[in-house]
Amino acid sequence: MSLKVAGQRRGEWLELMPGRLPVPEHGGRYEAVMAWLHNELAAPPKLLKTLEAEGGIKLAGDRLRLLLFPPKQSSFEPMGTPTEILYEDDFCLVVHKSTGIKVHPDGESREPTLANQVSAIYAERGEKIAPLHIHRLDEYTSGPVLYAKNAYAQLKLDAAMARKEISRVYVALVQGIVSPTLRIIDEPIGRDRHHNQRRRVSPSGQRAVTHVELMETLNQASLVRLTLETGRTHQIRVHLSYAGHPLLGDALYGGSTKLLPYQALHGESLIFAHPLTGELIRVDDPWPQEWLRLREQLALS
Q: What are the tens digits of pLDDT across the range 36-63?
């Protein structure tokens, strides 16, 4: 996708200026515009087909308009305090997910989820926007979560996620002193047939790769930065436990809950290409306050 692609929102429409386009031998200016949308904008074919059928593509002189921002009511009830926004534009939203909050309802609990908190943002503003999450975090993992604010962004970001082009960096407090030589854990992960919730390293599992960087050693604990090549369920928790360094608080994988009642895992940053412009966007999420207190406690003990 061209990094020079830029547009301006006009109400429900995105206005683009594709400039002079070569007209194909069999076709006119409309066909030239459609080819530009495919080749330069890399617009999802599924979306273009829908826009064509609904009259959502308009040409007026040098201006091209796409109906990308129709009002949409969220299916999630606005509940709880609106969550902190880390980044937002017309296409993307990145919010902070707190520890102990689920990304979306599971049908069992009536406690507000991140989806409800995001819905509350737009209910407060009186805007009919229904963002959809692009990735998830475990209930007790804090950090940034990326949302798409329209169908165009959703299709582009979902595809980027499938191609592993969205980078997520985590930090964790783990038990024991991690060796600086532990740089990569490349072990397949599968289900644990003895425990419904657990995963385990298994030769028959899916490939899983975690990159490890030792940041600091504390009293009987280490602070590590982790980058994922793959995104398996509980990947970091399984891999670090397998390496002999379960996360502090992670009772499911052998971690002690003496200092923390849940796994000490936080999403530190999120890096993705903007679905329209291709610009690389990095969103950082500061460490939770309880982490700062725990780190100080470990350093002094």
A: 898 888 899 999 999 999 999 998 877 8
The CATH code that applies to domain 168-267+294-300 is: 3.30.2350.10
- List all residues 6 or more positions away from 127 whose beta carbon is below 8 Å from its beta carbon: none
Give the active site residue among 89, 138, 186, 250.
138
Residue 241 exposed, middle or buried by CB count within 10 Å (0-12, 13-18, 19+)? buried
pLDDT tens digits, 80-121:
888 899 999 999 999 999 999 999 887 777 789 999 999 999
**Is there a catalytic annotation at residue 106?**
no
Domain boundaries, the chain: 7-66, 71-163, 168-267+294-300
- Give this prediction's pTM: 0.91
Does 22 score more than 80 pLDDT? no
Rounded Cα distance, 161 and 135, in Å = 8
Q: Which CATH architecture has domain 71-163?
A: 2-Layer Sandwich (3.30)
